[in-house]
Automatic annotation (TrEMBL):
Keyword Ribonucleoprotein: no
Signal peptide region: 1-21
Originating organism: Thioalkalivibrio halophilus
Keywords assigned by UniProt, alphabetized: Signal
Lineage of producing organism: Bacteria, Pseudomonadati, Pseudomonadota, Gammaproteobacteria, Chromatiales
Identification of the protein by name: Outer membrane lipoprotein Slp
UniProt KW Signal keyword: yes
GO-annotated cellular components: outer membrane
Length: 161
């Protein structure tokens, strides 16, 4: 087998394995996806939801941590921050989440039931936040999300001094 054929086979194998990679959260089933901004106190989703976005605020209570999240659509399970936002929501998590890790600007995805709608404020404006009780929570790595639908190949030479 030539070197080019081996390289092509290695690339194809890597793509197949990447396509089979496990997602970080177990998807709720059956899911009736509802955008956070579409939830009202009179129309709470009847099934667990999977929502994600960027942490805007963190509030630590005695037994829970509440994350205020700017919602974005998900690609797979990862928030697509380049898309238009879908409103805001709150995620209630049992226990303490370290504010160094769970800080504004970090991306998260959570699953669980939407249990209420709370009134709060964003600056001077009143806002109604759907509340998701987290059964699962995933904190995404720091850095820009991967570009959607792009595959990059390259050959490089490294020199260490």
């Amino acid at each position: 087998m030539s070197g080019v054929a081996r390289a092509l086979l290695a690339v194809l194998l890597a793509l197949v394995l990447a396509g089979c990679a496990a997602t970080p959260l177990e998807a709720p089933r059956p899911a009736e996806p509802v955008e956070p901004r579409a939830v009202t106190a009179e129309r709470l989703p009847q099934t667990d939801q999977m929502w994600g976005g960027v942490i805007a605020e963190v509030d630590h209570g005695p037994e829970t941590t509440v994350l205020e999240v700017l919602a974005y659509p998900l690609r797979g399970q990862e928030p697509r921050t380049g898309a238009a936002s879908q409103g805001r929501f709150r995620v209630v998590v049992d226990g303490f989440l370290d504010p160094v890790d769970y800080r504004p600007g970090r991306r998260v995805t959570a699953t669980g039931p939407v249990t209420a709608v709370e009134t709060g404020r964003i600056g001077e404006a009143e806002y109604r936040f759907p509340v998701l009780e987290a059964r699962q929570l995933h904190l995404w790595p720091v850095g820009a999300p991967s570009a959607p639908g792009r595959v990059n190949f390259g050959i490089g030479i490294g020199i260490g001094l």
